[in-house]
UniProtKB/TrEMBL annotation:
Family in the record: Belongs to the CobS family.
Taxonomic classification: Bacteria, Bacillati, Actinomycetota, Actinomycetes, Kitasatosporales
Cofactor(s) of this protein: Mg(2+)
Pathway stated in the Swiss-Prot or TrEMBL entry: Cofactor biosynthesis; adenosylcobalamin biosynthesis; adenosylcobalamin from cob(II)yrinate a,c-diamide: step 7/7
E.C. no: 2.7.8.26
Function: Joins adenosylcobinamide-GDP and alpha-ribazole to generate adenosylcobalamin (Ado-cobalamin). Also synthesizes adenosylcobalamin 5'-phosphate from adenosylcobinamide-GDP and alpha-ribazole 5'-phosphate.
Protein name stated in the entry: Adenosylcobinamide-GDP ribazoletransferase
Protein's gene: cobS
């Protein structure tokens, strides 16, 4: 049990925001004053906030490119690049590692060893290409249907992708390794709070992009849950790489569903 005295509510929120932004983005917020389970819990609860800010930055880049006269493809490309830069490509790296680990066909210990390697194998390369192409294609279609569709989708993607992290860190989801970031955050978020964050995200997505936005959020999170179930069976739990893969899966699925609202 964590014997660290609980922080006052406002301090807990502030520490959680610094944990979320410090671990999930390159934005200069400084390290959290404490690196423990309570701060990790608050940080993972604040992950959707960090995702929303990343999505707003991506939408801002898309808005500027649109104003400068760039077409849907190049505007979409700029929108895709911004989250990659703001996250240090951390989630894409996790996606590639998980694809290599699961694709190796090895038992849990062997698959985890594959995921720890610094190189990227063929499964990882294919996963990265398909994911980035799907994001680029979806945003190109959305911007082609109108600027507002592309901008809303950029925010939606950031919000949904990081909410998948909150769900992935809920109680009873174990860590696959005893060390690393995954071990610190795994199981740290109470289930009611995690599901509450998911519901809040779905409601915000509905306000942002209408019923299609709500459906995109729900189906994006559902896609991440399918991957999470697979990783729990194969790997025994979550790692930092698995969490990154969950974020990319949720965000990409949400973008693909959002294209259905442009007809």
């Amino acid at each position: 049990m964590d014997a660290t005295p609980p922080a006052p509510p406002l301090d807990a929120v502030r520490h959680g925001l610094r944990f979320a932004f410090g671990t999930l983005t390159v934005l200069p917020v400084g390290p959290p004053p404490r690196w423990d389970r309570r701060t990790a819990r608050a940080g993972m609860l604040c992950a959707p906030v960090a995702g929303c800010v990343v999505g707003l930055c991506a939408a801002g880049a898309g808005w500027v490119l649109w104003l400068l006269g760039f077409g849907p493809f190049l505007t979409a490309l700029g929108t895709v690049v911004v989250p990659v830069l703001l996250s240090r490509a951390l989630h894409l790296d996790g996606l590639a590692d998980v694809a290599d680990g699961l694709g190796s066909g090895r038992p849990a210990e062997g698959a985890l060893a594959v995921m720890k390697r610094s190189d990227i194998g063929p499964f990882g390369v294919v996963a990265l290409l398909l994911t980035l192409l799907a994001q680029l294609g979806a945003l190109t279609e959305l911007y082609g249907a109108g600027q507002r569709y592309g901008l809303a989708a950029a925010v939606l993607c950031g919000l949904v992708s990081r909410t998948a992290l909150t769900l992935g860190c809920r109680a009873r989801v174990p860590a696959a390794r005893p060390d690393g970031l995954g071990a610190l955050v795994a199981g740290s978020v109470p289930q009611p709070a995690a599901y509450g964050a998911a519901l809040t995200t779905a409601l915000l997505a509905t306000v942002l992009a209408g019923p299609v936005g709500g459906c995109a959020a729900v189906l994006g999170l559902a896609a991440a849950e399918v991957l999470l179930a697979r990783c729990r069976r194969r790997l025994g739990g979550v790692t930092g790489d698995v969490l990154g893969a969950l974020a990319e899966t949720a965000g990409t699925a949400a973008l693909l569903v959002a294209t259905l609202g442009t007809g």
